[in-house]
Amino acid sequence: MTSVLLTGAGSGIGAATALRLDRAGIRVFAAVHDAADGEILARGASASLSVHTVDVTNRASVEALAEEVSSQLGSEPLTAVVNVAGEGIAGPLELLPVESLRHQLDVNVVGPVSVTQCVLPLLRRGRGGRVIFVGSMGGLVAVQLAGAYHASKYAIEAIGDAWRQELAPDGIAVSIVEPGPVATPLWAKAVETLDKLPDSKRYAERIDAVRETLRKASKNSPNADKVAAVIQQAILAEKPRTRYPVGVAAMVVPKIRRLVPDRLFDKAAQQATTKGAKDE
Length: 280
Fold this sequence. Notes:
The chain is of the alpha/beta class.
């Protein structure tokens, strides 16, 4: 039976993916950070979906999760691990507390590595295991006031590339799913990080504009089901692709970025990220 460990299953892309895989008859080990979110998820799923509370930044918690999954699988292999858990921290790098940057990298980079390390023995029980990282278009293109988030997603691109080469001899495929803007709670949480920044006349106008852009993104972007469908494709494909861009923006913008000189792109990005306030 196909079985998948999925982090970040409490909301957004993770929850949509967990429910989609469950409806497809796939055994889902749904890892959530908040037990209350897990209870909500379980009510919408079949009895075969199991919920596990984990803190991906805590190694002992991750190891306990791997042991639980191993115990429930018995001698059966794990088909795939899907690393969805992540956060978005916004703000000018000059004002961002170093602790916030450290937390961003801990959740979005170290966490997925830790989870994958712990479950690789379960993937190796079978043949053709899958490691899937949910990255972002923001791992290929960076704009102002989101440097910490972009740094974490650029790191996932490098980690995915390196691990794909390292695991190829074992027959384990590594894929990176790269969504463009998606309507998830991540955007609202990013607004909260902006609200906690110290006052700054230098950045105030740009922060207000980005705050409005993030609020609009949380309402007007495509929903998470589109990303969930691509993740399912990456799990089940006979020969999975190394990268799966999701949405027109994710397919087009990185290609344009490679062709456009840096300063010209900077100007366009600055206009795009401050457009929200000007449209009000």
